[in-house]
Structures are given as C-alpha cells and as structure tokens.
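Structure first, sequence second, as always.
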C-alpha cells in the first residue's frame, strides 16, 4: 500500500488541478470587494501624484529664511497661477499644488503672520511637508499583481491609477453532494438508524461566501443509479464536492460511481486526523477539466478537510494567488498530548492569545465543532505540549 500523502503535498497536487473559469472585465464598484481576484497584472495609466503637492496646511515658501511676502493662494483643485520669486510665499492647503519656485511648506502652526508678511518660528527643511510627484506610483508601474483580491484599498488604488474596470476571474460553478443510506433531509423524521443530512448544508454554507450560489445535489442514497443521476446534474460544475462514501467499503460507492461517470482518481488518502480518506478526482468535460473533491462522511472530518482543501481549491479557481489558510501562533491554555503518525487538527477556542480544546475531539462531535473558532495544528510526531507553550492555530472565519 502506498504511503499517505502529507498535507502540503496533497494541497500542492490539488491546487495544481484548479479549474479555469474564464475572465471578464468588471466595472469598478463597491459590490466587487470580497472574493474576486485579478486575472492579470495591472499597470498605472497615470502618475500619482501628478505634481508636487502640499502634505499640510500652511505656506509654500521660496528658499531662504524669510520673511516672505504672501502673493496668493494654492488650494486643492485651484493652483496658484504663477511662480514664486525669492522672498515670496503662497497660502496652501493640504493636497494643493506646490507652485514653481517653492521649496517646502511652512506649517501654519509655525507661521507668524503680520498682514501679507510671514515669518517662521521654526524653519522647515528643504522639501519638508511636500508630496513629490510620482511618490505613490508612476505611469507604467505595475500597481496590482495577478491574483490580488479586490479590497476597498485595491479598488481605490485602481481608480487612482486611471482604471474604470478590472479584469477579474469568473467564480467557479460548484455543486455539493452528500450521500449515505442513513441520511434524512433536514427536518424530516429520523429513525434510530438514521441521521439528519447536515454535511450538505454545512459545506454549502462554507462555500457560499466565496461564490454565492452552490448547487445542492443531496442527500443521495448509497445506490449506483441514484448516484449516477446526481452526478449527471453536476456535469456543468467546475468543482464537485462530495461527502461520504469515498472509502472502499462494501457500501462506499462514490469512487466507482465517479469512474462510471468518466472521472479519474488523482490521489486518495492524506496523513491527517481527522480526514484521512480524502479523495481527489478529475473529469474532462466539453468546456474543460472538472475537479471532484471527495470528503469523509463524518461531519467534523468533512468540515476540517473542506477548510484545508475545498476552500483553498475554490480560492485558487477564483484566481487567488495565496489560497491556503494562514496560521498564527498562540499559547496552549491546557496540556496537549503527544501526536502519533498523522498530523492532527484539534477543534479549539481562542481567548486573548491563548487556546484550549472546544470539547470532544471525536470526528462526529458537532457540538464541539460549533463551539470552536479555530483549529490547533499538531504535526505528526509532535511531543506533548505544556500550558503556556506555543502552538500553531488556524482561525475558522469560514476559511
């Protein structure tokens, strides 16, 4: 039997398969902030600032120690019409053009004014309080790299650089299929041999903030004909996320159903806990490559693998240049045991830089998962951790 893949290797292989969804120019407006990403590098169409500007309210002064005679005013949008001669100054406001012949800005707090004459209680150094032309960016500079997220700041930068629209990667179409004979649709009566189908709702809720609509295909019984019908409905999806049935037991039919559908298994099983029976497959559609991500059926395993694999895959398909979750360091608020051969992700609660377990670490314990706001990352073979020792943590802000 082949060795289990490490988390990093499995993520690398998965992200390399991210489907291409196309690009489109989108007019810049506030609603595109969030989960849209640039399809290509963008260059500045203009220089910012286009001229030397004042960074403070005060007086633009000619070189020298003064006094200076005030000969006019420069306001934002209404520059002084001439050039300064030695011994002259103009009243200037923040963001206004520095007139030719001026050297620095004497801020109003350091200016002593007597009629039209201005003297300095504290002389500014040459160039002081001046925003030089092009200090932010110049025409032709690369201002935003491919894969940059649309944020309020990046939108402002694009507009300042002269752009009215952005080349954005189109969101992928996503379907979620949860399967199992024991599953009952939400709200339906359950026998003692049945459970409510919570995974489809959970996965859809995790993916919805990224792409909006997510097509729900389940719950589906462990039946080859039912699975084939559900997969038929997923033929237009860029990414299909399944939950349950990805193993190779007598009643685990997803792998065979996918093969019957024309999919090829890319890899299977990752050395993590929970989430070992993760499966990745691909299928060639008329419009390109589909990616199928098979998650375990236990709800906590499904959540953790969705966090580590499904969300990064969707971000990568959307053009995100850094799709993987980022860890931070916190202090353990309680002892943690040594780790075995598989990397563990413990459901936990953080508070003031400290972190403690949220409750039961069983892969079916939804109560502890709902209480958790983070995952503690415990590498394989890690020794026991004492109170106060550092641990790596992933915040669970839906990915």
């Amino acid at each position: 039997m082949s060795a289990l893949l490490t988390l990093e290797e499995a993520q690398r292989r998965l992200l390399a398969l991210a489907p291409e969804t196309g690009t489109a120019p989108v007019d810049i407006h506030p609603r595109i902030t969030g989960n849209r990403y640039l399809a290509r590098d963008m260059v500045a169409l203009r220089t910012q600032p286009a001229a030397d500007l004042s960074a403070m309210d005060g007086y633009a002064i000619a070189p020298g120690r003064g006094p200076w005679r005030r000969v006019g005013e420069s306001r934002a949008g209404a520059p002084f019409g001439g050039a300064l001669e030695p011994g002259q100054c103009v009243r200037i406001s923040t963001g206004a053009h520095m007139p030719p012949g001026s050297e620095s800005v004497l801020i109003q707090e350091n200016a002593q004014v007597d009629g039209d004459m201005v003297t300095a209680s504290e002389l500014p150094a040459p160039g002081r309080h001046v925003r030089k032309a092009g200090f932010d960016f110049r025409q032709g500079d690369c201002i935003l790299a491919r894969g940059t997220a649309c944020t309020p700041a990046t939108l402002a930068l694009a507009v300042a650089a002269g752009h009215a629209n952005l080349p954005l990667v189109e969101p992928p179409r996503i379907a979620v299929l949860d399967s199992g004979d024991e599953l009952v649709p939400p709200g339906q009566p359950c026998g003692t041999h049945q459970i409510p189908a919570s995974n489809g709702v959970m996965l859809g809720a995790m993916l919805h903030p990224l792409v909006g609509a997510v097509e729900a295909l389940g719950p589906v019984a462990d039946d080859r004909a039912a699975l084939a019908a559900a997969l038929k409905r997923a033929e237009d999806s860029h990414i299909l996320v399944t939950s349950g049935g990805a193993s190779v037991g007598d009643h685990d039919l997803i792998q065979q159903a996918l093969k019957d559908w024309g999919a090829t298994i890319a890899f299977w099983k990752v050395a993590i806990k929970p989430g070992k029976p993760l499966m990745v497959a691909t299928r060639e559609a008329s419009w390109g490559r589909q990616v199928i991500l098979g998650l375990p059926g236990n709800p906590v395993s499904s959540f953790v693998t969705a966090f580590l694999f499904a969300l990064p895959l969707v971000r990568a398909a959307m053009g995100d240049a850094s799709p993987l979750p980022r860890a931070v360091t916190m202090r353990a608020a309680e002892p943690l045991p040594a780790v075995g051969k598989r990397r563990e992700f413990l459901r936990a609660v953080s508070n003031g830089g400290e972190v403690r377990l949220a409750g039961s670490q069983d892969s079916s314990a939804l109560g502890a998962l709902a209480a958790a706001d983070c995952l503690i990352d415990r590498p394989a073979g890690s020794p026991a951790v004492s109170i106060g020792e550092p641990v790596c943590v992933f915040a669970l802000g839906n990915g």
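Margin note: The chain has a mean pLDDT of 94.
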